[in-house]
Amino acid sequence: MFTAPFAAALAAGSNRPRRAPAHYGALPSERQLRWHEMEVCAFLHFSMNTFTGKEWGYGDEDPSLFYPTAFDADAIVTALHAGGMRGVILTCKHHDGFCLWPTRTTEHSVKRSRWRDGRGDVVKEISEAARRYGLKFGVYLSPWDRNSALYGTPAYVDLYRAQLRELLTNYGHIFEVWFDGANGGDGYYGGAREKRLIDKRTYYDWPRTWDIVRSLQPDAVIFSDVGPDIRWVGNESGYAAETYWATYDPVGEDGGPAAPGYVREKEGETGTRHGSHWMPAECDVSIRPGWFWHAEENAKAKTPAQLVDLYYKSTGRGASLLLNVPPDRRGLLYENDVASLRRFGGFVRATFATNLAAGAKMTAPFRHNNPVFDPRNLVDEDRRAYWTTDDSVKTPDVVMELNRPVTFNVIRLREYIRLGQRVEAFELDRWDSGAWELFAKATSVGSCRLIRTAEPVTTTKVRLRITQCPVCPALSEFGLYREPPLDTFA
Ligand code: FUL
Fold first, then answer.
1. How confident is the model at residue 3 (pLDDT cuts 50, 70, 90)?
2. Pairing with 105, which of 23, 219, 430, 440 sits 20 to 30 Å away (CA)?
3. pLDDT category, 2, cuts 50, 70, 90?
4. Of 26, 489, 67, which Cα lies nearest the Cα of 245?
5. H-assigned helices in 20-171
6. Which residues does residue 414 pair with via DSSP β-bridges, in sequence order?
7. Over the stretch 23-82, which tens digit does the pLDDT of each residue have?
8. Ligand 1 atom closest to residue 140's alpha carbon, by position in its atom list
9. Rounded to the nearest 10 degrees, what angle do helices 73-82 and 335-353 cross at?
């Protein structure tokens, strides 16, 4: 694993104190740490609305309308894989209540459709294809159900939990369960056709519902407006705030306790510095104007350049990107969407394929002078190895000597988040004609901070200055990258 000199240095340092710094603030769980490594996932909005042209079905749709003519889970997942997606979350049931799997809880499902003569199971096919292509699989199960006659009564909560159990039992490993905040209003409700409102804070008894996820899929992260593992970022445009904290204390609309669908949304974009929960944000956004496929939006897929911009504003700020790509009435992703995805994925892969800082000479003060905490850990591509300083050294500099002129336009920093989110501000200088010159600065870092410079930077030395940090910083990566021209990705 280690180069010979580094291994020797490690041995030499073995009798120096190795005590890691104390952690700072709320910390991520193991399941959150795994989720942080995913960074870009796909959302599939595919259901009755695909066939009716709606975004929110009323719940009275005839199940026979669900009839994809050429559904091909492998084709869908292959396109997502080419787009660099590491996971996929499927709308197993949207607000109209139609279930994409043959549930035992209602007749309003694929069982009653003409697709595969009523013997199909979209959840099974997508989950299996995901596994074949190395993507993790997650489920979206809308709490609001405009079809169910029981909605609004305690019996519906039992039914909802039974649906959740089916999804978490019959489809293998689930990486994320997505609980939507939209809840209650007009609906068909088994023919009642009325408005039903529920108390968003109490109706679902969320802690007990989440317990089902914990017991059936202990590795899965739970997403909602209030976590507990992953929070909504508070907008559906795909970005986190420029200064972004993984820590968060959600506050209800009235300033009291928060619940899914009852939260001060805007605060999700920033999070809460010194918040009591580690609850990173997921930035959900559709590649098209709507969440579901509509023919009239076929020419409106976001361009690769727009997707790249969203990537920098979500993943690049320490959150993650959840990009919706809705299958069409054939049961395939539409060609424009696939082309944008492929170019986006190719571009991101090519950008980060070569770390131009690899092998650079790194100079910085390090903790107890123990090589375990050496700044070389910043360029070793190992997230578990990190650089840190003595407790008293809170605003250190790191100098990276490249030994040759290097041209880059992207800088990637990662904190060693197992010790919490620590850094509050930093600056970057390049060596230019015998002097340091500032070329970029930013605030929070967290699991990933990407800086994209307006113009490429050419230099032989780069300096990172931590300018604000309440404790000693702990970083695992300081990388330099060069974007290729986007138009070379066909
Ligand atoms: C929202 C829903 O109302 C939309 O239809 C969509 O599913 C989006 C991801 O979440 O709350």
1. very low
2. 219
3. very low
4. 26
5. 30-36, 48-52, 73-82, 122-132, 154-170
6. 477
7. 999 999 999 999 999 999 999 999 999 999 999 999 999 999 999 999 999 999 999 999
8. 7
9. 40
Q: Which amino acid is at 202?
A: T
Residue type, 71: F
Q: Is the pTM of this model over 0.90?
A: yes
Say if CB 322 and CB 88 are below 8 A apart. Answer: no
Structure tokens at 253: 């609309």
- Best of 180, 183, 293 for a ligand 1 pocket test (most atoms within 8 Å of beta carbon): 180
Q: At what angle do helices 206-216 and 154-170 cross, to 10 degrees?
A: 20
Structural element, H or E, at residue 215: helix 206-216
Single-letter amino acid, residue 80: L
Count of CA atoms in the C-beta half-sphere (13 A) of 213: 25
Whole-angstrom Cα distance, residue 218 to residue 211?
A: 9
The SS3 call for residue 214 is helix
Residue 182 Cα: closest atom of ligand 1: 11
Q: Give the separation between CA 100 and CA 117, rounded to whole angstroms.
A: 14
Residue 160, helix vs strand vs coil = helix
Mean pLDDT of 214-225: 98
Kind and range of the H or E element at 306?
helix 304-313
Distances (CA, A) of 169 to 120, 145, 190, 330, 470: 18, 21, 27, 29, 45
The rounded Å distance from CA 182 to ligand 1 centre is 7
Ligand 1 atom, smallest distance to 324 CA: 9
Q: Which two tokens stand for residue 260?
A: 């899914």
Q: Whose CA is nearest to atom 11 of ligand 1?
A: 182
Residue 99 C-beta-side C-alpha neighbours within 13 Å: 24
Give the mutation target among 186, 236, 322 for probing the ligand 1 site: most ligand atoms within 8 A of CB: 236
pLDDT tens per residue across span 375-384? 999 999 899 9
Contact 471, 24 (CB under 8 A): yes
* Residues contacting ligand 1 via CB (< 6 Å): 55, 180-182, 284, 291
Cβ-in-10-Å burial (0-12, 13-18, 19+) of 17 comes to exposed
